[in-house]
Amino acid sequence: MTTKRRFSTRLAFAFAIATAVSTAVAPAIAADDDAAGIKLGIPGNVQATAAVGVVLRVKEVVAAEDVTLVTVSASYSGETSFLELAYSDSGTYLQDENGQKFPLRSPEDNPNLRISRGDTMQGRLVFLGRVAPESKKIRLVFNEGRDGGDTSGPGLSVDVPLTPKG
Known about the structure:
The chain is mainly beta. It has one helix at 3-13; strands spanning 37-41, 46-50, 54-64, 67-76, 82-84, 93-96, 101-103, 114-116, 120-128, 137-142, 156-161, 163-164. Residues 143-166 are annotated as: Disordered.
């Protein structure tokens, strides 16, 4: 994959990006976005894989006023030309340690989180509702109930340990 393709994919994918007080979707993340919430610490290597050829890495979690922002990168190297991490209504959400589920706010430009073979996409996922800043862990769930080998919308989940940052 060339660098040029990575950057164009990053812009084309553009996860929904928002602050706690705005519903705007933007293609880039401003340097002061963390001011809108509490950045929660995560270990340096939080990732999960699905048998179909997906690797998902969690890079940052921010508990904003009314939403939880999760910065991720997702790569796909499977057999089909693309797959979707939010396949139809199959259940893509964030879950806190008490079992509460926070639904994904689907990005307008890519509501099913489609990834093309050979691409890596990066951005912030917006989940409706704020995870408590004192939470010790969250779980990201993509395509709940589906098999990890499903070539349309593979099931995938990742537990993310959290520590408040000071």
